[in-house]
Structures are given as C-alpha cells and as structure tokens.
Amino acid sequence: MSSPIKHIVMWRLRGETPKERMAARIKVKTLFEGLKGRIDGLTHIEVGLDVSDVDYACDVVLLSEFTDGAALKAYATHPEHLRVREELGDLRIGRFQVDYPVRDETGA
C-alpha cells in the first residue's frame, strides 16, 4: 500500500507594484482553494501568502496532500487543475516544487 504524499509548490508572481502583486497573490489563492472537494484523492489544500516582503521570498505557497502518488499524478492532468493553470496564464514567473511521502508517527 502506498502512503499519502505531500505536494508543496511556491511561486514568484508578476506585478510592477505592491498592489498588482497582492492582486496576483489573491487570484492564485482563490483559484487553488476553489479546487477543494473537486478532485478525487486531494485530501488537503492550503494556500499561504507571503507577509515577509523580503526580496528573496516567494509570493505564494500551496500545501496539498494526496491519498497516494497515483492521486497526485492524476491531479496533474485533472480538468479542474488544468483550468486553474490556464486562468493563471503567465502570472507565475518562478516555480519551486517538493513532493514527499507522509510518514506516520513510527516513521514507517
């Protein structure tokens, strides 16, 4: 049996002014949070907006969890996920990702 998997993505977003960047952050947050309950195998989704304002920080982080690797793979091509990606277009200028299996309290 395969274990749950966490999928974490961070983005840098377009925007010339702080107001434009905040609007971009809110758009990403709204669209991804709208996936909740729409994709089989997606058990948790959370979107955080950076408040540090340091120049090397990402603007948005997506924390999600899937029942297993197969569910994560299916998410990549799910029509709802593809719709979100299309709506965001070229708003994202940098992307970083980490996927890792969730371990239980025993480390298994």
TrEMBL record:
<feature type="domain" description="Stress-response A/B barrel">
    <location>
        <begin position="5"/>
        <end position="100"/>
    </location>
</feature>
<protein>
    <submittedName>
        <fullName>Dabb family protein</fullName>
    </submittedName>
</protein>
<dbReference type="InterPro" id="IPR013097">
    <property type="entry name" value="Dabb"/>
</dbReference>
<dbReference type="InterPro" id="IPR011008">
    <property type="entry name" value="Dimeric_a/b-barrel"/>
</dbReference>
<dbReference type="Pfam" id="PF07876">
    <property type="entry name" value="Dabb"/>
</dbReference>
